[in-house]
Amino acid sequence: MKYTIPIALAFVSATLSYAQNSASYAQGLLQALQSANLTMLASAAGNSSDLVAALQSGGNKTVLAPTNDAFAALGATPSEDLLHAIITYHVINSTVSVADVSAAGNNVSSTLLKDDDFVSLPNDRAQVVVLSKDAGNGTVLIKEASRNVTFNLTSDGPTYDNLLVQPINTVLSIPGNLSTVASSLGYSSFADAASGAQLIQTLSDAETGLTIFVPNNDAFQAAKSEMASADRSAVQNILRNHVINGTVAYSTLLTGPNAVASVVSASGNSLTFGAGSNGGLTVTSGNVTANIIRTDVLLSNGVIHVIDSVLATTTTNPEAAASAFHSATSAAAARPSAGISGSSAGSNGAVGGAVGSVALVAAAAVAGALALMS
């Protein structure tokens, strides 16, 4: 018992010291933001002790800081929960300087947003932002589904303690579900077919992580006669080729020195990746090769890559699909949930697909598209 009081006093002293350090950090942060004329962000951050604590802990971070004009353009004040989610989505969990962002391709970086009301990525992973650079003027772009948001400066913004502050001209939008994103991209054949077949909710609610290769409207139209001659089973097999279930495979996993050469789709077939004649990526299934015409369109539970052809391979290998899905989800559970940092990117470890509701949903989507086009 004689040690109880000293230990208790030491605990109280440490707690008070931490509280004082936190208060000092918060005060310094608010002053730094105000000095940079980011007063509305300072006000939002100052009202959340949880946010300040998250900024202070866990190493260096980058704040994508909306200007006062950007906040004013929001109009109505978001709810407290939504505002907190918005702010955490603007914090990259590493230092990302202007020089770190490559003009050669997309750079994918993990944020602090992990709230399961807004994010459903494997292993409690945080949502990401996609960055690129304009090779002409050096401006850094944050690539969203329907717009690009730019850094205000072509050199780095101010720093405070462990934070690099990069002012931006617009408040970022948190990635939405498949229905919202597909509609915003204008891919009506896919969106209407999936909605009409009551498939959107199933894809949107998938919690194991998804990579979806979405054929554009022209691709659906070009495949109309070929798909119409296929029986129901063949159509289902074709659409399974467009889904990788259990893995969120950003473009940085598909290119570069550490790129994967192939993955297993939800049909159990191999999807191989290569370089196209225009310098972009291609994906091949069987004897069909599609150009990936847009990469890294973020979803709340995965990522979309837009392609210009339907991957019309009718064979299936359920055992291979199930094995790949098991490998992907097991690897995701084994890896730490810190996510992606800086300009590196990843998936859930092993890349794989699965037979299951997502594959059947995808198959029904094509069947619905054919019905709509007939």
Automatic annotation (TrEMBL):
UniProt keyword annotations, A-Z: Membrane, Signal, Transmembrane, Transmembrane helix
Segments forming domain FAS1: 22-147, 174-311
Gene Ontology BP annotations: macroautophagy
GO CC annotation, single: fungal-type vacuole membrane
TM regions (residue ranges): 350-373
The protein's name: FAS1 domain-containing protein
Classification via Pfam families: Fasciclin
InterPro entries: Adhesion/Biosynth-related, FAS1_dom_sf, FAS1_domain
Signal peptide: 1-19
